[in-house]
Amino acid sequence: MIGVSETVEDVPPAGEGVRSARVKVRCRTIEEDDLASVVRLLQVGFPDRSEAYWRTGLDRHRTQPLPDDVPRYGYVLERDGAIVGVLLALYRMVTDEAGTHLRCNLSSWYVLPEFRALGTLLDGFAMRDRRVTYTNVSPAPQTWQMHKARGFKPVCSGQMLVMPLLAGLGRGRRVRVATPETLRLLPEPEARLVADHLAYGCIGLVCSDGEKAWAVLFQRRAIKLRPGETRWPRLPCLQLVYRSTALDLSAFLGAIGRHLMLHHAMPWFVLDAVGKLPGFAGHFFEGRAPKYARGPNPPATGDLTYTEVVLFGA
């Protein structure tokens, strides 16, 4: 069971001498009353993100059914009643072939500079539960080696930009918009997952071959053509955030490409991968947006459901 609060260390305020009174800093879970302070701190740490960005994502996550012994939003570092650090921890219950288990998307870490040395303790406090599979879908490049040292393993090593229209016609393959009618073709848990993500603003498609049906979800994104380069414009695109486990995506690429072009004027999409995918026309970008997981039930490559990518948006 995850603890509610823990005093992590006594630290003198930054810039004060060793004779200053030492100050208690504790780590604890985020409560509803903390959200305004948490959002203000996140805006300091991520100045390109608006207040609406954070509140929208947290509001969406609030509706997730969770056990009583996991935090709703994550953890904070608190010094004398003031929040000086935050780590969002977005838990969800996952049911798949392995059974029902907990997964936690560790997201949006920020600690005020004078308390930065305690940031690793915040991480350690958040990852104590061995039942849980922890993921990080947006690690900063300077943290990649730290994740590996902590036992995280890559879920993907890069992204592929796919041109689906070049895959051929895909005769006999049908792609339709996910609607209440087409969702009835899917198993009930998957239909519910797709409906949730439609409400988050994702594009949902139902693929069928006349006998079986599968789902695909895309999130609208704008990606940098050259990571770290601010002078280059961002490329509008879609990112694949979910596909049914049994779906042979390559067989539906042509049909998906026609649908995306006709309905969204979008000739390409990106998806997470561990290398160039056979049968996919496009380019694999090694090292772009790697994602990591640690725990007993890592997600499938490309499964970003209920993570910050869809909850908070682009």
Automatic annotation (TrEMBL):
Alphabetized GO MF terms: acyltransferase activity, transferring groups other than amino-acyl groups
Species assigned in the record: Methylorubrum extorquens DSM 13060
Residue ranges of domain N-acetyltransferase in the record: 25-168
Entry-linked Gene3D superfamilies: 3.40.630.30
Protein name, as recorded: N-acetyltransferase domain-containing protein
InterPro entries: Acyl_CoA_acyltransferase, GNAT_dom
